[in-house]
Inverse folding.
């Protein structure tokens, strides 16, 4: 049985680690804030180094590039021999970070897969994420069983950096889609259309989508309890803009959408669900 060490028990990491535990893997978790590990109901290690020492496969699910660099640097600083251990990062990071981690792990004799996920908390709980994976194909094949527990659509993407880039491109659609749905919903309310009726029509019309299905109740009830935070989408769009700039590819919609989420951050909505972008449209149009 594969011995898995799981790092990061946020909104996504916790249900994903639970699915691996329920699938019968020998798993221990570690989280920077220890209480989350204690409350997870999962076997945990207090010290990161104990997790690294004892496990063959280490999976990270952190915030973004900075946290991934920080945690991998801590792992390397322990001086533990990582030869033949496999590291899988599932965080959404800048492709440069994925390449950096790959290089640092491989030069120490370890294996690395970059495997960001598409889908949010509910698909994570159901083991129905979409997973895009870059790295050595043989290592990917050897670990497919893990991805099959966590997701239902799994794509092998080839070289390091490609999976992260594709994930970020996906999130340009996600961010702009969420923003336009919130804009349309606020528009309908502003002109006096019954909010529930407006959402029902949009759901059966041009708004029909996974995003609207997932966010309909949140918009209607202005329930911004977090599945995917404003700060996460803002991070992803910032990485996407950087890649677009470097490739001299203009992304007009993504640039505007990033600023909408920047505005949500300015209104202290960073930790709220990204459907809270509705509040930006309400404030801009002087709506209650
Ligand atoms: N939420 C979604 O719907 C969704 C969907 C697809 C992909 N993603 C991506 O999946 C990743 C995780 O998302 P999430 O929603 O689970 O995020 P989250 O709830 O904010 O959790 C972030 C996790 O990273 C840890 N962390 C942050 N900075 C750290 C550092 N410097 N050192 C050590 N640990 C650190 C946090 O530890 P603490 O508990 O100590 O803060 C926490 O465990 C992100 O890259 C996100 O973009 C999210």
């Amino acid at each position: 049985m594969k011995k898995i060490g799981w790092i990061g028990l946020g909104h996504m990491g916790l249900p994903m680690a639970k699915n691996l535990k329920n699938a019968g893997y020998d798993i221990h978790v570690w989280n920077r804030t220890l209480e989350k590990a204690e409350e997870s109901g999962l076997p945990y290690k207090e010290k990161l180094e104990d997790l690294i020492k004892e496990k063959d496969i280490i999976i990270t699910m952190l915030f973004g590039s900075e946290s991934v660099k920080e945690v991998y640097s801590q792992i390397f600083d322990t001086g533990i021999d990582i030869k033949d251990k496999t590291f899988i990062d599932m965080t959404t990071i800048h492709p440069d970070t994925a390449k950096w981690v790959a290089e640092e792990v491989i030069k120490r004799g370890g294996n690395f897969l970059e495997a960001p996920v598409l889908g949010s908390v509910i698909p994570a709980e159901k083991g129905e994420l979409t997973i895009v994976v870059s790295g050595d194909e043989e290592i990917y094949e050897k670990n497919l069983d893990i991805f099959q527990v966590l997701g239902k659509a799994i794509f092998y993407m080839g070289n390091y950096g490609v999976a992260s880039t594709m994930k970020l491109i996906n999130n340009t659609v996600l961010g702009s889609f969420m923003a336009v749905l919130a804009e349309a919903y606020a528009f309908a309310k502003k002109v006096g259309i019954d909010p529930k009726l407006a959402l029902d029509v949009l759901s059966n019309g041009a708004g029909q989508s996974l995003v609207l299905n997932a966010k309909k109740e949140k918009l209607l009830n202005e329930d911004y309890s977090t599945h995917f935070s404003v700060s996460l989408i803002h991070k992803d769009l910032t990485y996407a803009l950087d890649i677009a700039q470097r490739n001299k590819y203009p992304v007009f919609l993504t640039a505007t959408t990033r600023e909408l989420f920047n505005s949500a951050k300015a209104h202290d909505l960073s930790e709220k669900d990204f459907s809270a972008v509705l509040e930006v449209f309400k404030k801009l149009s002087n709506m209650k």
